[in-house]
Amino acid sequence: MTADRAPGADGRQPGPGRNVAVIGPHIVDVLGRPVETIPAGQGSARLTEIRATAAGTAAGTAVDLAKLGARVCTFGAIGDDLLADILLAALASHGVTTAGLVRTPAAQTSATILPIRSNGERPALHVPGATRLLQLADLDLAALADADALVLGGPDALTGLSGSDLAAIVTAARAGGALVLADVLHPGSERDFSRIAGALAGTDWFCPNSDQLLALTGRADLEPAIADVLALGTGGVAVTLGADGCLVTAADGLTHLPAIAVDVVDTTGCGDAFSAGMLTGLLLGCAPADAAWLGVACGALAATGLGSDAGLESLAQVLDFLSAASTEAAARITAAIGERERVR
Question: What is the rounded CA–CA span in Å between residue 84 and residue 152?
Fold first, then answer.
């Protein structure tokens, strides 16, 4: 907890202060920069920085949500190894509750080595690990009744769960009144889309990147791809476009928001940060475009440091940063925070 995010007299966090459950991939990232080439043979190279972080569309998003003021409990499968210990310690350091994580000796903790180029690009060396072993029996669906929101991060990677299992998770969360946001981990395929369609049908918001959405739907253009998702029954779609910002559905059609220019260090976790910012805005009662602005700001800040937990510090910091790009959006979000504090 950062100093400017101290709880109020009643112990609650400023900002959204809501209970969020996060289900999905929990990955240990080991990152180094800058890496332009891999030395031949047994050669070596000196780097400026090497870090290990809690990452993935569940763990990375959980950390960002906690930084933004949510009370987060995360669910997934991890190994019974040192990598799991590192992951648990990293999550706990940000105040994320990890009681929902299942440790298994059947596979190592999911992990990725990321040699980050000087322009922020990030080739990946990945071990899928324990993520795929999560089963429905490992989840306490009744616990979702206490959640104000559910992030279903990377259902495409949760291959231990059937399409009907994924839909049952969303149904349980919605029955308790939770707002549900989903993302995906992999590049995407039409087969993945068919498997997760039942879950997306009950989801309030789907937040893939543009390449993932086109691959999932088999479309060549984003507008028909978004229409395919909405046709399932999904409430809204926010598509991240990298350096081009994002597209978000609204009552009057699609809204394009530009990216916020930053000096890019590493693009790892930018999508997770966007999802965390988007959900935070929605939980504050913001209009979708303003929630997406918060997501864009979070994603931009994540790119300014090494690893998915870098750059983003607090909701107050994000709003200060956003105010330079859209004073109006920052003012509306600030007003929403004030209104929520007034009624609590």
Answer: 21
Tens of pLDDT, residue by residue over 241-289, are 999 999 999 888 999 999 999 999 999 999 999 999 999 999 999 999 9
CA angle 171, 157, 24 (to 5 degrees): 55
Strand order in the sheet with 179-183: 97-104, 71-79, 19-23, 149-153, 179-183, 205-206, 236-240, 246-250, 253-257
> What is the reported pTM?
0.93
**What is the Cα–Cα distance from 43 to 41, expressed in whole angstroms?**
6
DSSP 8-state symbol, 198 = H
3-class DSSP state of 186:
coil
Name the CATH code of domain 13-37+48-343 (choices 1.10.10.10, 3.90.215.10, 3.90.110.10, 3.40.1190.20). Answer: 3.40.1190.20
For 191, phi and psi rounded to 5 degrees? -65, -40
* Domain residue ranges of the chain, discontinuous segments joined by +: 13-37+48-343
* Residue that has been written with the tokens 């990152």 in this structure: 31
Angle in degrees, 0-180, between the axes of helices 210-217 and 190-201, rounded to the nearest 10: 100
At residue 52, the 3 state secondary structure works out as strand
The closest of 19, 96, 17 to 56, measured between CA atoms, is 96
